[in-house]
Records
---
Amino acid sequence: MRLIIAFVAAVLTPTLALVGWYIYGQFAMFDSNDPYIWVRTREFFVICFVISAAHVIALGIPTYFLLRWRRLIRWWSVLFAGFVLGAVPVGAFSWPLHSSPGSYALANGVQTIINGVPTMAGWLQYFGGVLFFGVCGLTAAAAFVSCAA
């Protein structure tokens, strides 16, 4: 039962952290009487929950059983695995070298891809995104470790 609670905590912790960050931005950007803040927040919660649950089910559970089979369950190995499982899928799917020659991209007015080649700003944006999702995976793993111990 403790293991199930740990996996549920691994799904909910990054979800609730991201939703808290999102709702803070909603109240900072819009009037607090805006009734659509809660509609947007609910939709964002569902998206975060589904992605987090998919990561835990498809990647986290098999990794846990692999680490347990190899007798490598330690707090640091679980945290490392959580970071890697959060970062690697995003890093693979957002790899900037998939752009076709002649393509250009802008982010906040800064060119991130010029003629199909990522600029330094593009690489920084890419690694920042990968690091962000790695920290989300690390957060999930920390929740898992704290509940499973």
---
Amino acid sequence: MFRIYPIPAFSDNYIWCLADTSTGKALVVDPGQSQPVKDYLKHSGLTLDTILVTHHHPDHIGGIAELRETHPNIRIVGPEGSPFTNVTETVSHGDHLEWQTIRFSVMATPGHTLDHIVYYTETQVDGAPVLFSGDTLFIGGCGRLFEGTPDQMHRSLNSLRALPDNTAIYCAHEYTLANLRFARHWLPDDAGLIEFEQDCNLLRQAGKPTVPSSLQNEKALNLFLRWDDPAVIKAAEAYGAEHGLPVTNPAEVFAAVRHGKDHF
């Protein structure tokens, strides 16, 4: 039986721990810090044998060197061609990897960084297929474009939008309320956003994560996936007219939304 647990790190990161409760083996995704992982493993009685890396930013890989020292035989999987090379295995778009009885598909999602990849499995964990989306797709948002272009990120998100609606989105940050404040600024009368923001506020007040969300929910609410929604198009056109941005196709709608969030 598989379960996924959040390991909080820094001020707003999640290191995801995928556990096989039948064997006690564990896999973690993007361990930016080592100590939270060590503490969680000790508390849970799990044995770490695999690390998955989505991209090279320090808050995603900063704990790997120390974890490798304490787990010398650990498997570390990361993107091919990445500036981060402290791995035992590289993967690229279209590759598959096995962990226990789970088979992950690797998808390239350049935009936030050029080396960014995500890991998807059809195997249902806690009742849903799983996407470890790193900093490409957030709940209510997407990653800032540090290296890629809006066109690249639009294509990356479009590939994720094609996954099954019940896919659970396990992103790497608790950015949801900030993303929803921006979304509500653009679409103040969107009833779905109003209700979702209320629900997420209650979760955070209770000390619970807003992650994961479902892809179906994100397609309905996340402005960065709604480039063909008339309400978002209208808001993007108004924003583009004000800021001198062309908004004539879906990629440009996305680019206007991203620009809006960057300057919000």
---
Amino acid sequence: MMAPFIPFYIVQELGHPPWQISIYSALGILLTVSFNRFFATRLDSGQRFAPLVGLSISGYVTALISVLIWPSYWTLISVCVLGFSLSSSSLSTMYSFGRYSAARYKFEIAPFNAWLRAMTSLGWMMGPALAFFIAGQWGAERVFATALCAATIWALLWWHTMPREARSDVLERPQIAGGDTDRLLWLAVTACLFFSTAHVLCSSALPLFYVREAGLPEYAPGLSFSIKTATEIVIILTTPLLLRRFSAVAGLILSGVLGLVAFLVLAQVKDVGTMVAGAALEGAYYGLFAGVSLTYVQSFANGRMARANALYVNSLFIGALFAGPSVGMIAQFSGFQMAILAACLPMLGALGVLLFTARFRRRNDLRST
């Protein structure tokens, strides 16, 4: 609810110029990346999961209460950005807890990871729509109040369902420090960063491209987003079947190829029918990426599972940090269509890294045998 609403709130409700969104966004991403790394270090050292999630909930609640009491830009870039960044770190913590749960309760890892990612996408499908609907009907203050109610449900679920003694020290420790496994982990994370950059370049440019350049009706961006997200969730939940027949790297390469096709189709949209086809392709490629990428990165964890999960989540945030300002700059000089086509460049980078990783891993396997 908060991630897409805060930029709107800064400009529309508080009346600040759009460039001030960049200050809030940059602070938020830098703090989230730092908290993710800190939490990962603690988890890999044997810290319990529950206190860290509780700390994330406390940060979220504090941020919401502060903006309800003192609704100002300075509140947003001080207390709120700190609290929301702290709460965002719960994502990588929950991915680590999910991996622990899969090992503890003998769940199949790939399907369980797919469910975790599907729930993340489902949250993105519901949260922004709910936030903007409430803002349009009753005002921004009700959005923060509703988010506070959601935080109460989050806290109750955490208190009643999360085992207090669960800790990551049940996971195996690194057998080899550094070396090829660490290089492969960084290559995997780099590929995810390229995917994230491509995704944000395209998705950020699409709404304005549809309305301003393609001449589609104003409902088109919302319809496109719904089709894309619904397709994404279906594909995420079917990726475990794919992983039983193909390797994770093969799934990601297929995702990259589909992504290139999606960008080329979306950049040529002139009517609603083509938009629907492009949105389905966008959901298919990103759903395949989301369903496979977490398991792919975890395969190179070498016992430091929380670190791998934190690097994975950070790669998505940093990719968004690169892509966000780039959309505005490209659109300023060449239009939003060019921003969509520009997404092909990082996607080609992701495919290059994946092909290199597959070759590097194959060569090492042959050397070891």
---
Amino acid sequence: MKILLTGSTGYIGKRLLPVLIEAGHEVVCCVRDPKRFNPPDSLRESITVLEIDLLDEKSLERIPADIDGAFYLVHSMSSSGDYESLEERSAINFREALKRTDVNHVIYLSGIINESELSKHLASRKNVEIELSKGDYNFTALRAGIIIGSGSASFEIIRDLVEKLPLMVTPKWLNTKCQPIGISDVIAFLSKSLFNPNTYNQNFDIGGPDVLSYKDMLLDFGKARNLKRAIYTIPIMTPKLSSYWLYFVTSTSYKLATSLVNSMKVEVVCRDNRLNTILDITPLSYTNSLKRAFSKIENNETLSSWKDSYSSSGLNFNISEFIHVPTFGCFKDTRVRTIKNREDCITKIWSIGGKTGWYYGNWLWKIRGFLDKLFGGVGLRRGRTNPDAINVGDSIDFWRVLYANKNEGRLLLFAEMKLPGEAWLEFKTEENKLIQTATFRPLGVAGRLYWYAVLPFHGFIFKGMIKQITTPFLANKTA
């Protein structure tokens, strides 16, 4: 069967793709930015890639007529303040585009929407579901609450809170009930629902066996990690104050924090578990979902992370717009140093950021990250998804990967920190040399003043960084 997969570069889409291919399907992957789509070579023979923007009706004409099924895995809750209208327009455009195809079954991953009063985010999910259900095809909506898995937004936020804070004074919404579900079970429900007549033209809530408060989830996480934690809830935290609290303590963006806080005041508990019986699925408990997630992390098997989506930075751009580093009107800091061991050098470049740090002046990088958070930026807390591998579109602390070719020995990063301008950082090996270039395109007078203000720190940081990167591992150990 030929399956159309929207959200192919997203957290769910990346994990569903290999499952669909393993089931024998041919998958048409819809992506807005092809440069961010990096499937394993083993999957490429079964994939067709389409560059599609759901807000651009003309681009949707590229969808082939002979598709049999489709997954709608697109959400925009942190990309814009007006995401409801964007989500509605995207859903309508998608539904209308499918009229030109032979599609038989469309599946949408929505949110649990059983309460009479919904948050802005959940109300938007419900509206998308209504619009998609109007199509000339069989439609299934799977409604999930908190998804637990390595790299999921919920998991990473819980992890940030529990591992960083022995004592938490929290807003009262931590007493709200929810029904978490493991990512492996979400993928099972999605894949097994496809072309199953028992799921046609219905909606189902999917969740694990445990109904917990958010406070319970934090405490159980602490137990799973052998961390003793104390949590006290107070009634005086406003939604705005709660959003700031979540934003500063965790790696989430402020827009996403606001959407999450508003949604966390609404109970997301399943009506029933009838789909479990229909599809013969027994979901994992919350504790077992946590264990599975940490097993994946410890074995460097995290297939996707919410931090690599643009929602983690609040920016919305195509990589192709920034991959060519400008020269006109720019300031540059270029340093060249002889490489003694090219393999060691490239290994260090490909390990940069996250727990490894930036090799020199890490305390200054941390201060810069803290200041970035104060001004509404992403800071350093996103880290990186994989300690060794880098793909185009990945986030590395407050940078976004624009180009990564290990054989070529070139890595190009674009800054997502708050700046009065735009910044790039490039590492490029040529023959026996490493060329390290920081480029800054200032925006007005403020941008120029910023460059000259940080210039003394650049001389300290960038000189030390290239020295450490080009020094072989053995020499470092000896030193």
